[in-house]
């Protein structure tokens, strides 16, 4: 894994993407075992950006599923969480898609879907929430698009608008943190690379559900061109 120095980071065109920092992934039904470890470095970064003249534009993705979502094992008779099945492609009648089945998580209007209050507090109201996974028949790991890449959140449109926030320069760099490394962090970072954004993944502010998916995701993100950094390195460029 190559780690980058940040002498050249241009904060005026940098956005923070905070992925699925929600109760169910921290202490709920799909808890990432070491999720708590991301909070000290991430909160200190958010606090130092808050005191900056122009804090970076910040997006918070929120996994937000209907109660009968296709990704829930409970939606498929006899199926167990953490297994993989083929589900019908939502648009292509003769195709299926691989779907990992999860315990019910981040159900709409439940506290498990709430974004962590410490993160919201550190942002002092500056976060823009991007909901995903809201359609019953398709899962959505990336903050940009559903897993079939037929529907899109408004994240790309907002990042690529000519003035993403009042007075802000166009975005060319994203800093990615959150949960879980093997799924939603991976998919979001890879999509950001595909959009030719400079993509910096904060290694001390991401955690995964299991070692295998986490290690594979680190290799995949690097292959697509993501850079890796620790928060202290990044914060020293503020
Ligand atoms: C995620 C599994 C299911 C994630 C979301 O945020 O990484 N993982 N839904
Ligand atoms: Zn989910």
TrEMBL record:
Recorded metabolic or biological pathway in which this protein acts: Cofactor biosynthesis; nicotinate biosynthesis; nicotinate from nicotinamide: step 1/1
Keyword NAD listed: no
GO molecular function: metal ion binding; nicotinamidase activity
Record InterPro entries: Isochorismatase-like_dom, Isochorismatase-like_sf, Isochorismatase_Nicotinamidase
Pfam families xref list: Isochorismatase
Sequence ranges assigned to domain Isochorismatase-like in this UniProt record: 14-231
EC number: 3.5.1.19
A GO biological-process term: pyridine nucleotide biosynthetic process
Keywords assigned: Hydrolase, Metal-binding, Pyridine nucleotide biosynthesis
Superkingdom to which the source organism belongs: Eukaryota
Record family assignment: Belongs to the isochorismatase family.
Protein name (database record): nicotinamidase
Organism field: Acaromyces ingoldii
